[in-house]
Amino acid sequence: FTLKMTAITQYKNQECVGGNISLLMQAFRKKFIIPEFAEFAEKINKIYKTVKNQDEGKVANYIPQLAKFSPELWGVSLCTVDGQRHSVGDTKQPFCLQSCVKPLQYAIAVHELGTENVHRYVGMEPSGVKFNMLSLDDDDKPHNPMVNAGAIVISSLIKVKHFMNFVKRIAGQEFVGFSNATFQSEKETGDRNFAIGYYMKEKKCFPPGVEMIDALDFYFQLCSMEVTCESGSVLAATLANGGICPITDERVLSAEAVRNTLTLMHSCGMYDFSGQMAFHVGLPAKSGVSGAILLVIPNVMGMMCWSPPLDRVGNSVRGIHFCQELVSLFNFHNYDDLRHFVKKQDPRKQTGDDNIGSMFQLMFAAHNGDLSALRRFSLFSMDMDQKDYDSRTALHVAAAEGTHSLFECRQRLEQQIDAEDPQKLSTVERQL
């Protein structure tokens, strides 16, 4: 019996490994986008605990179903472009997407119809007014797809029947539900959205043949779709991965649709806080009045933060604080990679990568006799004593190559002059 079970186990192991050898090789070699993932997850947990102490904000009450959530709920999930997952807090509790559905419906519309066709009916500029204002741009179009007017028009462009399945594909077939109670509440309390709809009907904002009431009804349905933090993080990760779901490896959205969506999330995604979010956090994000924040770190990961208490503009207090703490610790801000910028932690690099890179640059400059590069390294406090795999310093390399002019730098590197290489020759002896 034992032998039989062992044989089956070995066969199953071979079957599993055979189809996933590339994935396993990445894991064993620490070649995932976050190589030290356990360490990174611990830092996420610390940020989560710090932010949990925030007790400001109020739960949205203008939609009765939203008012029922406890202000103590707080969850964060992340999914990297390689499918690495981490969750902390209330991450299995379903909640409505609300305005977090707007980037998804826009991405699907562009994927199916193309950028030009979609933007015949909606603009791409920040509105400068509240998200639910009766306001159009100079061409009598909604300012962008991230405000209510724009999302209602986008609802008239996409197919109702397959939208739920499309979102499930973006979420890697993980949980995507629907709250009928929220849908009914939206319809009963949606006077402002009805006013926006009729205003746009008067201005002929909808495509020919579209019934405004049908588009509005579909918009209410979209806002009532449910996810958890865990499934929501996969939605964000698919956007971070250029439209390919990291869980199923399926190309769900076109690269064009994702690029456009992230651009608009970055400039218009956070209500009246969009400018500050772009300034302080520097990442594409979309918030909803359910307390959700969909955060995308392009080419790295997607995150879903959820906490019902909102600030005065309708963003999750804990969610905003989490995003700010995340970027203060890690170099995820869009402009953190600028030269001479204060260095933050980069979880994309394996421990020791920086040292290896700096040593390679130093030795390469010494090999080529590049004095300007060596002076620059010295000014930036690089360790000029570091040794390569053969225990040689930069001066040993320069001496071996016969780069006489390098000895002009000897005062800066005087501590190396008498160092011996593995052949027991000092740098001076080798040069001679």
Automatic annotation (TrEMBL):
Highest classification ranks of the organism: Eukaryota, Metazoa, Chordata, Craniata, Vertebrata
UniProt cross-references to Pfam families, sorted A to Z: Glutaminase (PF04960)
Enzyme class name: hydrolase
GO terms assigned for molecular function: glutaminase activity
Catalysed reaction, written as an equation: L-glutamine + H2O = L-glutamate + NH4(+)
Taxonomy, superkingdom: Eukaryota
EC number: 3.5.1.2
HAMAP family the record matches: Glutaminase (MF_00313)
Keyword vocabulary terms for this entry: Hydrolase, Repeat
Protein's name according to its UniProt entry: glutaminase
GO process terms (BP): glutamate biosynthetic process; L-glutamine catabolic process
